[in-house]
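Structure ticket #2291
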Amino acid sequence: MKATATKNTTSTQIMGDDNNHHSDNPLTNFTHFYRQWLRRHSDLLHRDTIQLDQDKQQLLVEEILAHYNDYLESKSDLAKHDVFLVISPPWLTPLERSLNWISDPRPSIAFRILSSSIEFDGLAAKQRERIEAVREETARVEKELSDSIARVQETAAGRPMAETAKRGAAAEWPEDDKTAAAEDYRRAMKAVVETADGLRRWAVLKVVEVLGPAHGLRFLCGLVNFQVDVREVGLELETQRARNGGSY
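Resolution: structure written out below.
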């Protein structure tokens, strides 16, 4: 198998030019990290894996998983600074943000990519059963997290910061109460993001574990291709909007 490179797209087109990246601003630093990370993501699609034996396939699988983990860890570090930046990422295009669910696409999207990356008929019955079990567990936890974030948002709507917005400048909630409410909301949202990222990591690792090196590599390349393709289309749409004076 040869991973398919994104057509007519250079690393600079995907990432943008980013020479001046050192900053004391965590958002600026993460934006630079993400551009470099996605450039590496794109480069992985150019790997020719046809001649790789099983051991080398496994090494490449581990490289891709480590690369993905770097992203999750760096995003977690940014969330410690400001979780709201992670929930609404300014480094993404509007198209990419539209696909997000709690800071990134739903973990369950991996199973749609899986079905288009490999032939399920070629898997053993036990493998198919185990993948279905992972899919069901992922869907269950996704539902729990969706319910959790809804409760967090509903709770915030009844707290002093919401009352202040409703009453305007005349609101007389003590500053300490507003600060405490905002901190409670931030802490709750951070916990939801951490759980969602943990689910993403778990689902991908379990699927790769079930598939083995050859099929696992095809699956991971499918995930990479999806992210790079969405990035490419998102940038193309933004270029088109700029040319059309703000509309697509």
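Closing remark: The two ends are 36 Å apart (CA to CA).
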